[in-house]
Write the structure tokens for this entry.
Amino acid sequence: MLKGRSLIEPADFSLEETDGLFALAEKIESDEQYLRESCRGKLLATLFFEPSTRTRLSFEAAMLRLGGSCLGFADPGSSSAVKGESLADTVRMAASYADAIVMRNPKEGAALLASNYSAVPVINAGDGGHHHPTQTLTDLLTIRRLRGDIKNITVGFCGDLKFGRTVHSLAKALARYEKITIIFISPEELIIPEYITRHLQKHNIEFTETRSLEEAIPQLDVLYMTRVQKERFFNEEDYIRLKDTYVLNKEKMALSKNDLIILHPLPRVNEIAVEVDGDPRAAYFKQAKYGMYVRMALLASILGVL
Ligand code: NCD
């Protein structure tokens, strides 16, 4: 039962609970009327202290499609945070108005802290460079929809593996599935954090690290491209030097398997050339749509309307 539960990082839900969400998301996708008015009278607070397009809009679309309503802010400049209000106080207030809270915040650990002060479930929509569990639900659902299951695959993560929270969450979550091999592709300065590799070792997940996308791409079943996280850099020069390290283009696509799945949490900057968008292996726009269905499944579950 997910009723009343918060989601701070992917492992907060068991594999069975996660599978249940995917099955529910698939049912919602196949029958647009299913759960249509189930959240009538319920309110979702969306507190976005950092920019967002897909995550915020897909949560709002999800809640509205379920018949519920949303309130909140997309710009912390318009909230009392600018007057110096603490996160704990802001969250306490939102929890007294709404039935659930979705929050994105630049500080690692902010969502966990919020859940300690909230009387209603808190969903982490990204806490700094740490975790982004609903993006992981989106990513896993996309793999499941396109392959039929989530096992027996080699997954490549490419780009900013140091600051990319979607990478951290998905890599950790993949450790729970069978026969997963991971290849981390990044510049030396942006390698995957040790707390993730330690987790993979603990779960006997095979992984390697490389600097070369060309070398890795022929082996991959899933390629997870990411943008270099400009906002988490301390200096502009490093960002400029690293931002175009990897660009997925037609030449690199020619080296890859015919059934490769290309994922990207979006926004894309330069790391996937627009010429790749028309390739049947490009799944990133589909992925964004699955994100709405899985967020509908999540909201209906934690609000207890099933
Ligand atoms: C990601 C994020 O915010 O971490 N975007 C998203 O939610 N789809 C990825 C990113 O910003 O690069």
